[in-house]
Amino acid sequence: LLDIPEAGYSASGSPPQGEVCIRGPSVTKEYYKRDDLNHDETIFTKDGWLRTGDVGQWNPDGTMSLMDRIKNLVELASGDYIALERLESIYRSCSLVANICVYASTDANKPIAIIIPHEQNLRTMLPTSVDPSQGLSSLCREKKIQELVLKECNVTGKNNGFQPMETLQAVVLTPDEWTPESGLVNAAQKIQRKKISNLFAEEIEASYLEASLLGSSRSLIFPSSVSFPLTLTITSKVTPNAYFGVGSAGVNSKGEKCRRLAIAKDKLVTQPQEGLETTTDLVDYAARTHGTKDAFGWRDIVDIHHREKDVKKMVGGKEVTEKKQWQFFELSDYKYISFLEIQTRVSELARGLVHYGITSDNVFNIASWPLMSHACASVSTTIATAYDTLGEAGLTRSLNEPECVGIFTNADLLPTVSRVLKNTPSVRFVVYDGEAKASVLTDISAVRESITIIHMDELRATGREKDVETLAGRRPTGDTRLCIMYTSGSTGAPKGVVLTHSNIVAAVGGVQTLLGKHLNPDDSFLAYLPLAHIHEYVVELTLFFLGMTTGFGRVKTLTDASVRKCKGDLAAFRPSVMVGVPAMWETIREGILSKIREGSVVAQSMFRSAYAAKQANVPGLAQLADSAVLSKVKAATGGRLKLALSGGVALSHETQEFLSVALVTMLPGVCDITVQKPHT
């Protein structure tokens, strides 16, 4: 930890707090073509430490609490600092909050929040003086509703030990969902703070002005018995000796700033198994070890059902009703390919790439994973990542900066590719999967003669005809550059983080060391986050190494309510392991609570009793509660979940505890692109 004196954090304090710095085999050494950042000692120190920008705290049991990001620390007019992400993670657990962005002016003494209300819960708490027939847009403008949401949020803050300056001074309510398409959240559902605060700039200013005129009577008074500051302790109920809990962190002396896991105190983990140095080694190992076992599963789209719905929104200061089209997918059952089949397909694609002249000096942009990424990696061709939510400008940058010779994507995204190709002169190959419209392929061919368009099946067929000797001399080493993984660009232009094979393999080794004891080949993992997200990428590679089956899903088809004439991905695949972001886990928690509230008084009482018995771990009763009552709650996620990871920003302690008791053991963690490793 490094001191952050301006915010009052000290690495030698009690408890030790400061900026988290990391050094090890999984940590990147550079940003792509950014010498200004690579020689910046506020990012890379002279002795090789990467300054993560996270604010952390060492706990007595050896765990680290991640409190926030330095960029989200705001100094108020009083001179006090508040951590915006931490506040959001707590306020998001309020039953009236569907999503939230906390904003604080340096001229104010308290923050305010832009909130999307949870409509269903809000309507159960409407004051009698408020007309219940109103749409959500009208309710958001009601003063009594704003006061209700503000009160409930601040009660949640009080229950979590917030200091007075961390309570909300006012709220701005909006009925409109924040989606990746709107640019207000990224592909991993992380809010884009700057864009949201700019969009609501006028409302923020008006709310601060109104609150200042009303004075401080709307704030809560806290009892003197509450101790501050309160941080979210990252803990787990999975506590084998020397892996988690007391004694798991190796510390050389009292107050030492540098710590590592006790089991790795003599040598950091660099591989999940001796001799595996590259991701290509991982693919070959999995094929040898797990053979014909199902490796990847997916669902085809059978049909798309359309439904028209009336939506009320504000236009020109007036509420109007508009017709909105909703899409619901009808999906097939899961189809699978084995570990051996994956190795074969990767080899065919790799030979196809070599046939078309793709060299180890080239960079291939991958907007759709994972077979193509493994194919490129196996012939030492660097891949660069791109999120479809970056838009045309972001895609253009991620193609031009590394001078990509090709791009692989899904047929649905080819229109976007077609529009950016005229501004990306280095691109010569467009590889796609799925069914493309002939007109789109014609448009791409018309951009310039040098562009070759290849379907993934055609590339495989070409490679199948080439001898395996075609790949001689192209196999990567640990030092080979594997990937240029671009950040989301939430605070500026996306930055390319350079990752080698050894970086990623070390990350896989770290996850396997921590969680391998609790996983086996009979387990299954549902993947639905963007595959170019580092958290998802590392976890999937780890589970691939362990021989687990990975099923691919979609955010929009996870639950039964979001599909038609079929089960949602959760119920159809029945995973035992999941990775999610806090917004998803908050949604699941609220869905469980909503179902309970809709039940009879007897059913609600049974749930409360079962929850209390399991929370207290009462011998006999805890197991009975789990099997007799809570099993119905678990059925919503397929009934087999035994472990869940939460990544991105911090998960509220309240949600972590609730889901760990009612659903599954929750391991909050953070995975930074520059570090590669989920930290729990």
Automatic annotation (TrEMBL):
Signal peptide range in chain numbering: none
Key words, A-Z: ATP-binding, Ligase, Nucleotide-binding
Keyword Lipid biosynthesis annotated: no
Catalysed reactions, semicolon-separated: a long-chain fatty acid + ATP + CoA = a long-chain fatty acyl-CoA + AMP + diphosphate
Domain AMP-dependent synthetase/ligase, first and last residues per copy: 332-663
An annotated GO BP: long-chain fatty-acyl-CoA metabolic process
InterPro entries: AMP-binding_CS, AMP-dep_synth/lig_dom, ANL_N_sf
UniProt-listed Pfam families: AMP-binding
Record GO cellular component, one term: lipid droplet
GO molecular function ontology, one term from the record: ATP binding
Family stated for the protein in its record: Belongs to the ATP-dependent AMP-binding enzyme family.
UniProt cross-references to PANTHER family, sorted A to Z: ACYL-COA SYNTHETASE LONG-CHAIN, ISOFORM J, LONG-CHAIN-FATTY-ACID--COA LIGASE
Name of this chain's protein: Acetyl-CoA synthetase-like protein
Organism whose genome encodes this protein: Athelia psychrophila
